[in-house]
Design brief:
By secondary structure, this protein is an alpha/beta fold. It folds into 2 domains: 70 residues, Winged helix-like DNA-binding domain superfamily/Winged helix DNA-binding domain (Arc Repressor Mutant, subunit A); 120 residues, 3-Layer(aba) Sandwich (Rossmann fold), CATH 3.40.50. It contains 9 helices and 9 strands. The chain has a 7-stranded mixed sheet with strand order 5-6-4-3-7-8-9, with helices on both faces. A two-stranded antiparallel ribbon has the order 1-2. A hairpin with a 2-residue loop joins strand 5 and strand 6. Helix 2 packs across helix 3. The longest helix has 19 residues. The protein is elongated, with a radius of gyration of 20 Å. The mean pLDDT is 93. The protein binds nicotinamide-adenine-dinucleotide. Nicotinamide-adenine-dinucleotide binds next to helix 5, strand 4 and helix 9.
């Protein structure tokens, strides 16, 4: 089995993918690692090392075929493999994420949303139904039995006060990956992975010179 790709490499590869998508729009057939490195203000050798992970090969003097390299990155990062997710908390953030069209391009399909506001329950958001949180287990089971897909990802955008109890419901519904936007350190079993998303942390990191 090949070694897992580091988080930093994944983030750089996604930036290369943005650049390649832009090149394709501009009908640029080739791009060199140097051009990518200059755009991102990083080392050319780093770009070549990352691209080597996709087993893509360039042509001397012209560089990489943009279409092929974009496809190789998509294969490497599994953009085409469909991954279904639930959103818990259909408020400002949860709604914005549910409407984010780009998720589908990266293989992330929002299967359903959950909330506890009676005014939101049974309404549709971007074509996806909002269920009461009490139906989480039932909807997860239905997805598995009827729609033949296991939803293992959840995006947590409830208020902080509801974060831990929601995480416990997610664990019971066999969710294995929680993308946690709440400002709460969740306590979950070891086999459940939590990614804590923190815009303020990123902002402070970025402005902390
Ligand atoms: N990670 C970040 O950088 C970042 C940025 C902004 C907001 N946040 C966090 O994201 C969360 C959502 O923020 P928002 O602005 O969308 O809030 P919001 O109030 O607009 O939305 C919260 C939603 O959760 C629902 N809700 C409340 N209690 C619930 C429960 N027990 N079960 C199910 N649903 C419940 C509410 O009805 C509402 O629809 C908050 O925890 C906030 O702190 C994080």
């Amino acid at each position: 089995m090949s070694a897992p790709i580091s988080g930093k490499a994944i983030k750089r590869l996604i930036l290369y993918h943005y650049i390649l998508s832009d090149c394709l729009l501009k009908e640029n057939e080739y791009i060199s690692s140097q051009q990518i490195a200059e755009l991102l203000k990083i080392d050319d050798s780093q770009v070549r090392k990352d691209i080597a992970l996709c087993a893509a090969s360039g042509k001397s003097n012209v560089g990489y075929n943009t279409k092929e390299l974009k496809k190789s990155i998509e294969q490497l990062l599994g953009f085409k493999a469909q991954k279904a997710a639930f959103i818990l908390g259909a408020g400002n953030l949860g709604s914005a994420l549910a409407k984010h069209a780009d998720f589908a391009d990266y293989g992330l399909d929002i299967a359903a949303l959950f909330d506890n506001d009676p005014a939101k329950i049974d309404t549709l958001l971007n074509g996806k139904k909002i269920y009461p949180l009490s139906e989480l287990y039932h909807v997860a089971t239905h997805e598995q039995l009827v729609n033949k897909r296991k939803v293992e990802i959840a995006i947590l955008t409830v208020p902080a006060s509801a974060a831990q109890s929601s995480a416990e419901l997610l664990v019971r519904a066999q969710i294995k990956y929680i993308w946690n936007f709440t400002p709460v350190v969740l306590s979950v079993p070891e086999d459940v992975r939590v990614c804590n998303e923190n815009l303020i942390g990123n902002f402070l990191d970025f402005t902390n010179d």
